[in-house]
Structures are given as C-alpha cells and as structure tokens.
Design goal:
Elements lengths: L12 E2 L6 E5 L6 H9 L9 E5 L5 E2 L8 E3 L3 E3 L2 E8 L4 E8 L4 E9 L9 E4 L4 E5 L4 E6 L3 E4 L4 E7 L2 E8 L5 E8 L5 E6 L1 E4 L5 E4 L1
Antiparallel strand pairs: 1-2, 2-3, 3-4, 5-7, 6-7, 7-8, 8-9, 10-11, 11-12, 12-13, 14-15, 15-16, 16-17, 18-19
Length: about 210
C-alpha cells in the first residue's frame, strides 16, 4: 500500500495519450463550461486545482496554480509531454500550455480569444496531432485550433480520434435496441467514409479494440 499526498484530490484517471501519467482535479466550480456560466452570471470563479501523478512511483506534480477567474480544462499527453487547456475569463482568452516534466517548465504554445468559440461546452484538447475541438449540442463538430474546420454530425456522435486524414466518431442508436458503431469521416470535409458496427475501446498499449 502506497500513500499518495494529493492534498485532497481523491479521484484520478489515466491521462489520455500516456501510459505513465494520471490526472485529477478538484472541480471547484464544476467543469470548464459550468465555470464559464458562473462567470457570465457574475459569480466569483475560484480556479480548480490540476494535478498529475506519475506511475509507478506515485510522484505528484501540480505544474500551475491558477488565479481567480481562470479554469483548467481536461489535459492530454502528446508526444510524451503534458498539454493543458486554461481559460482566463477576466481576460477573455484561452491558452494551450505544455508542461515539460524534465525541466519543470510551462511553455505556452497557443493563445486564442475566448470569442473564438461560442462557449466552452465540450471544448477539449485532442490528439493526434494536437487539436482544440468543440462539439456543440446542435450537431456541429468544430476544430478550433490549429486550423478552423466545422461540419455537421449526428446528434448521437462523439469524436474519439484522428489518424492522418481520418476522423473517428462513436455513434449510438437505441432502437430497436441499444447499439454502437464507429463512424469514420474524411478530414477536413467530414464526409462519411465507413461505418463499423461495435463499441470503441482504447487499450493500454495504444491498440484500439472494436467490441462487436
């Protein structure tokens, strides 16, 4: 049994794209979208804490201490480094940051005006390559950065992955009974190339299993 001092964050999960990092947050004001709504309604927003726990040694790092009015989104790992999304509501800006654990440095790799998105609903860092995406509840999928792309998807589709010129989505149906399928779309048009019955499952070694 190993005691890991996370200063009160007791729920961690694997960091997307990494086999050695876990991440956790205290969600002081809910998720990023909920924090944005509170700020727009003129409520004070205390920044959530964002920690990373290294496996197997259990080392804990907290690269950034956010300020009031700022809020962290869901992080990812890309090319062996941690990438963090930070919204700064008072300054109406979004920042994509890279944390280099070897040098304990934070590097800003992109800064966008908050007006680049309608809101922060389903605003997520994705890979690969590293992208900032948004999936609106009106059946629109958007890549916000590093390029701007938008196309229609089904309301029950969720973006999962990109591999070169292909974008992979999971889609579900509940009639006549619940079932899932993988929708492969062409990048950047969104044209459907193939539909594969089954549920998407990421495996620890990077394999993708389609459960049928």
């Amino acid at each position: 049994m190993k005691i890991i001092d996370t200063r009160g964050i007791t729920c961690i999960e694997p960091l997307d794209g990494s086999r050695e990092w876990y991440w956790g947050s205290d969600y002081a004001k809910g998720d990023l979208y909920e924090a944005e709504e509170l700020y727009r309604d003129h409520h004070p927003v205390t920044c959530n804490r964002l920690i990373f726990v290294h496996y197997p040694d259990g080392r804990v790092v907290e690269p950034i201490e956010g300020k009031d009015g700022q809020y962290f989104g869901r992080p990812v790992s890309y090319q062996g480094e941690i990438h963090i999304l930070l919204a700064d509501f008072p300054r109406s800006s979004l920042h994509i940051l890279r944390y280099d654990d070897r040098t304990d440095r934070i590097i800003q790799i992109a800064s966008l005006p908050l007006a680049a998105v309608e809101d922060c609903y389903n605003l997520l860092l994705r890979r690969a390559p590293l992208m900032l995406t948004r999936q609106a509840n009106n059946g629109k999928f958007q890549i916000v950065w590093p390029e701007k792309i938008e196309f229609d998807i089904d309301e029950t589709e969720s973006f999962y992955d990109r591999q070169g010129g292909k974008l992979f989505f999971c889609r579900w149906h509940d009639e006549p009974e619940y079932q899932e399928e993988i929708v492969i779309r062409k990048y950047p048009s969104g044209e459907v190339l193939e539909v594969i019955p089954g549920a998407w499952k990421d495996m620890p070694d990077g394999q993708i299993w389609v459960l049928q």
